[in-house]
Amino acid sequence: MGDSDDQELRVELAQLRQEHRDLDAAVQALSLAGNADALQMQRLKKKKLAIKDRIVALEDQLFPDISA
C-alpha cells in the first residue's frame, strides 16, 4: 500500500470517527429529550454500528497486527 493510499485511508478514518461522535451525540440528545422516536433511535444506532465496523476495518488496514 502506497503513501497516498495510506493518506486517503487516514482521511476517511478521521471523517468516520467524527461522524461516529456526531451520531453518538445525536443518540444521547434524543434519549435525554425523553421523546425519542424508537425507530429513529434504532436507525441511528444501526448507522453508528456500521460506521464503527468500517473504522475497525480501516484501522486493521492501516495498523496491521504485527503478531498475527
Describe it:
This protein is mostly helical and 68 residues long. The chain has one domain. It is built from two helices and no strands. Helix 1 runs antiparallel to helix 2. This is DUF465 domain-containing protein. It holds the Pfam family DUF465.
Topology:
Elements: H1 3-33, H2 38-62
Helix pairs in contact: 1-2
For this entry, give a set of tags.
about 70 residues, mainly alpha, 2 helices, about 0% strand, DUF465_sf, DUF465 domain-containing protein, coiled coil, DUF465
- Give the strand content: under 5%
Distance between the termini: 18 Å
**Given the C-alpha coordinates, what overall shape results?**
elongated
Largest sheet: none
Q: Average pLDDT value?
A: 90
SSE-based structural type: mainly alpha
Radius of gyration: 15 Å
Helical segment tally?
Answer: 2
Number of structural units classed as domains: 1
How much helical structure, as a percent, in the residues?
over 70%
Q: What is the chain-wise order of helices and strands?
A: HH
Low-confidence stretches: none
State the total count of DSSP E strands: 0
Task: Produce a short descriptive summary.
Helices cover 82% and strands 0% of the residues. It is mainly α and 68 residues long.
